[in-house]
Each structure stands twice: as structure tokens, then as C-alpha cells.
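<instruction>
Derive C-alpha cells from the sequence
<data>
Labelled lines for chain and fold
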Amino acid sequence: MPPKTYDAIVIGAGHNGLAAAATLARKGHAVLVLEAQSSIGGMAKNVELMKGVFAPEIAHLLYNINPTVARELGLGTIFAPLDLISLATVSLSPSGDHVLIKDGTPQDMAGKSHPEAAKYTEIYQRLTKFAGLLGQMSTKTPPSLAGGIKDITDLAQAAGLTKIGLNLKLMGKKDMREFLRVLLSNIYDHLLDDLTDSPLSGALAADAVRGAYAGPRAPGTVFTLMYRLGNGAMVTLPKGGMGAVADAFGKAASNSGVTIRTDAKVAKVMVADDRATGVQLGSGEVIMAKAVLSNLGPKSTMMLAGVEHYDVEATRRLRHHRAKGTTAKVNLVLSEVPEFTGLKGDLAHARLIIAPSATYVERAFNPVKYGELPQDPVIEAVIPTLSDASITTDGKHILSAILSFVPYNLKGGWSDAAHQELREIAIKTLETYAPNIRALILEAQVLSPADIETLTGAPGGHWHHGEMGIDQVLTNRPANQLAHYRFGPAGYYLCGATAHPGGDVMGAAGRNAAMQVIKDGVLK
């Protein structure tokens, strides 16, 4: 019996893989998605911690779903429902003098304008404006520069770059100079030039380095914050949890005719005459295709096809691709809502940031350099059950916490004792702000960066599948000469977060890779 044949096979049913599959299927192509795990979604899915209680396993909020992707795939429509709840941000202070940040404007707990509101708003609006320039690149293939100047003179690429240059010029000389000045600056100095070292500056510093192997004093952290703000920086909670995000992308794909198979681990990408021709599963089953797209990391993607299909320079560049995960996840099931000292009204519904100052964020980064756990971690937390009762039962609540600067290569290894120590650090830190939280804990889940790598295949357990520094974005994502989504053998493509425009749940990398496949004429 001859093997089944599709126009395209997508390896991995994370949101980018599903976006790639849906984009190709909507162009009339037969597409198969193969997922090694038993469920789709990658980092964007729920986990049942207790009967009827569903926590966001890894990612817990949406910031950057690309508007072009949402429109093209019909996300948020009757065909792929996705209801989003907007959240304010509260930057917590040990003294109870918390800061509420809503629509880019800070207030105190009494609802009065924060003393530094004008300066903060000026900084935030300026960075958001600059971020819009970067956002324009999110659905465009960056020039690979593999062919030197001829890549830049390609009409389509030149038009895109010219438009961005024109928009930069239209900002005016003052803003243009400021954009170029801050591009490689560190967020610590940029903030403290105008703000005090407080929860207000701490919140922005924490956002600039979340998921990164860098403290706020590292050069280029203004750029990483702008990159994060590229699609408007809305903080939203998906109704139904992150599983609703996976479902929306999954329905967009299946409604377009995509076939999705779970528990189907790809063992090898078949290559003949330096062209990808299909895949072989761990079971030995062979499936043929004209194009193969990988939602995995670049090293795993290369190994599936075989290193013999890559030149020495490409393998060298990929070997130096930086992907040291520094983000851990702690999920707590609580018997009731914890009481946060000084938190007024319904503000426990908000995104809660533990970063009392920019200096606190910098100090929290230091231990990771030595493979040690931070004793005073930066935390982004949310209690999704306060906004969405559909993910819980019997009055229980979930506190979902993302801890920054937790090492992938922990000194002594990630033993059970190390997981228990991280759990205790998280609870102890939360107790500073919610003294009764320990007594409310019914169940806990602790995921180290190494656990995240095992669960999702993300290189190094990295939140963005690779550092988002200026040397690993645009023409250098994942590496120079490999930034056009094409990856080694003809018909083989990268479609995950290690491709442009990178991490966060936005779907643009998958959509862009699919568009490149079509542009290359691989599917006829």
C-alpha cells in the first residue's frame, strides 16, 4: 500500500504550526499536522490540576496575537471563537502602596493620578509609538542577506524597508533621533532617567526582560520591550483559559480542511535529491509531501533532516543560537481568593507584578548567571478564575505565576528537592503580599525551564524558543542566511517562534512561513 501523500506536512501543533497549516489550507492545499503530544496548543493550553479545575499550564495571558493573523484565520468569529478579557496591571509593593496601571496610565490605590503619571505616560507612549515601527515588520519576510545586496534590492523587500524608513522619517527629526538613540540602550537607565526606582519602573523593567537571559541593565533591553509592545501591548485573558487559544487556532485549521493527528511523533524528515519529500513517524509510518514545515527549534529541525544537508557555516551559526530558558511556571489551586495587603476592590482580577523596583529586577537576575535560584524572584501572576468561572468548580481558584530568572541548568540539577525549593520560594514571595496564601493551597504544579522543554520541545525551555535580543531577530532569526523560513533542503521550512518575528502567542511566524512556501512556488 503506497504511503499517504499531502501537499504539506506541519510538524508540531503549537499555535504557529496551526497558523501555518490553516494559511496553506485556505489557499486550497491538503495539509497534515503531526503533534507528538496527546493535545494541541504547545505552550498555550490548559492542564487539569484537580477535577474540574483547569489552569493555564505554561503561558497564561495574551499580549500580541497578530491582527493580520486573527483576521485571515477568523479568530474570534463564530468559526473559531476566542473571547478576550482586558486586564489592568497592578505592580505590587511590600508596603501596600501598589500602583494600578490601566490604559498606560498609572494610579494609586485611591484612584488618584500617580505622582509620576505624566513622565510614565510619556515614556510608555513614546515606546509604543516606536514599537509600531517594529510591528510593521511582523508579517513581512525579513531580507536574509544570503545573497548580499541583491536581497535588499529585491522589489518586494525593498518596498517594505522603504515604507518603514518613510514612517520613521515622518515621525520627525526629534523622534527619529530618539528611536535610534534608545534602540540599543538598557531599560534600567532609560526608565530611571525620568522615574524613581519604584514599583512603577519595576513593572516596565520586568516586562522588558521576561523570558530573557538578561537583566534590565543589559544593552538592548529597550528594544526587547518595544518588540513586546509591537501589536499594541494589550494585556488580555482568554475566556476558557489558554486552552481556548489552542481551540481557536485548532478550529481555524480544521475548518479550513487541515487534518490534525496527535500522539504522532516525527522521527525523521525524508530528503531525496536535497529536497524534503515527507516524514517518517516513530511508528515507522511514512507520509509524503511536497513541503514540510517544522514548528520545532532550529537544532531539532536540522537533526530531523540530517546535518549532512547543512553547510558548516549554517551549523556553526545554529550551534551559537542562544536559547537559555530562564522562566519557570508555578500553578496553585486555592480554596478561596487570597487577601493581598492594600489591594482595593476587585483589583485581584488584574495582572499582578512583583517587581518593587528596577533594581530588584536586576538583582533577581544575578543568581541565574551562576546556576542558582533567585531568592526574591520577579513574578507575573494572575488569578484567572476571578474573571472566568468556567475553568473551575466548587469555589476553587487558580493562581498562575510566571517566575523570571530561574536557570535551565540548575546547579545540582532539577531534582524533586529542587522543585520543592522553587515551590517554597514562590509561596514565600507571594506571602509578602498575600499573607494568608499558604493556608489556601490545595494543589501545586511546578515547572522548571527543563520541564517546559520536555513538555513542549521549546529549545532550552526558552519562553520565546530563543533570545529576542537585537542580534537574534529580523535577518538573524534564527541566524543570518536562515531568516527566510527556508531551512536547508528545498521544501523544508521553519514555522515556529525561532523564525521571524519570534516569540509570544501571535501566530505570525507560522503564517509568514506558509506565505513563503506559496511565494516559492513549492505547492503547485
Notes: The first strand starts at residue 4 and ends at 11.
